DNA sequence: GGCTACATGTAACTAGTTACATGATTCC
DNA sequence: GGAATCATGTAACTAGTTACATGTAGCC
């Protein structure tokens, strides 16, 4: 059964291993705890769940909401679990990276130094903030069972690994911002570049 | 003139600041030296160049090829340069990250340990290899003018910054692979997980 | 009644990939 | 003649975003 399936489907299956969730829950999961490795809007999630259900990989039960209309809470079927594990066991094929910020950095030699430096400050702060968030979360997960319903061990391990990935990513970004700032501040390579109030150089 | 433009357009303008290039050249540039921060196929590049030219941001001259049909070599117009610098001066808005490998890691608690470990070995090697490539290139660029036509200083600074970004990214990934390997190998969190020859547990 | 949050969906569009199509030049 | 590389384009499709649409329940 190697039906060709978009990656998003497997991402949804993976998130459903953590707990049964509705489309609405999954949408929040993406923005709240998975944004550093995947994201999707509800307009993409609902049709994907429908298709996964049609293919027998997930099933749902209806549940009243605390506040709002009835929820459709999805969980993995055993077929869904098999499909997920089959996918997860294969190494990921290389997906293209796209980082707008790095493209902007490619232009720093053509921008006034102060503009580049202030942009780097802003970017650094953004990533430093996330780094802190992930570190805090990691501490909470790593120290035994702080979650109200303590996570089962496989989920705990998985979440810990994704948090650590977030941490290495963000700390790498912060490191780069610092190195770039230093290069722009001190290096001779930056000497002959446009500056605000120095028409001559 | 704040026409809304896809990011790819600005990426192409940025690459054209390095040197005048044909669509074919740009296509190779993406796979050879820009793949760690952007990529695009020729089927996307040619229409984008046509639109940039129609909008007056680039222009081309026809040039005979060494081997093959006539080339259309594009370069920035002054309007294109202005548009690029205006874009580059604004901090990048946050684009969603998508890393399939991290999603797989989320499932490691459900996979046999050896499968996860061997996957991590493969991934680590991939990133370590790239890290080495970027480091080598950085050394060549950083040590003065090794390029046949020595790069103008702004281009040299820009390229150096993108290489450094590649280096911090890849070394962060390698670091994560090592930490994940250790976690799977030694931690008690991994103790109660499926193993090849233990059907019970 | 009006506002906010919960909840599920569809439609229209944009960005990006894969596949198709064509043709020049060089090397074997 | 055939294969490989250079070179430019279009068509069809997939993935993802933005906008539209609808309705519930609770609070003020």
Structural features, described:
The structure is a homodimer of 201-residue chains. Chain A is built from 7 helices and 2 strands; from the N terminus they run H-H-H-E-E-H-H-H-H. In chain A, helix 1 packs across helix 4 and helix 6 (113-142) packs antiparallel against helix 7. Chain A is mostly helical and 201 residues long. Chain A has a two-stranded antiparallel sheet. Helix content of chain A is 59%, strand content 6%. Chain A folds into 2 domains: 7-89, Arc Repressor Mutant, subunit A (Orthogonal Bundle), CATH 1.10.10.10; 100-190. Chains A and B meet through helix 1, helix 4, helix 5, helix 6 and helix 7 of A and helix 1, helix 4, helix 5, helix 6 and helix 7 of B. The first copy, chain A, binds a DNA duplex (28 and 28 nucleotides) through residues 6-8, 22-24, 40-44, 46-47, 50, 65-72, 96.
Keywords summarizing the entry:
homodimer, mainly alpha, Arc Repressor Mutant, subunit A, 2 domains, 7 helices, DNA-binding
Q: Major sheet of chain A: size, sense and barrel closure?
A: 2 strands, antiparallel
Shape of chain A: elongated
Q: Indicate the percent of residues in helices of chain A.
A: 55-70%
In total, the number of strands of chain A is: 2
Strand order of the largest sheet of chain A: 1-2
What letter string, H or E per element, gives the SSE order of chain A?
HHHEEHHHH
Helical stretch tally of chain A: 7
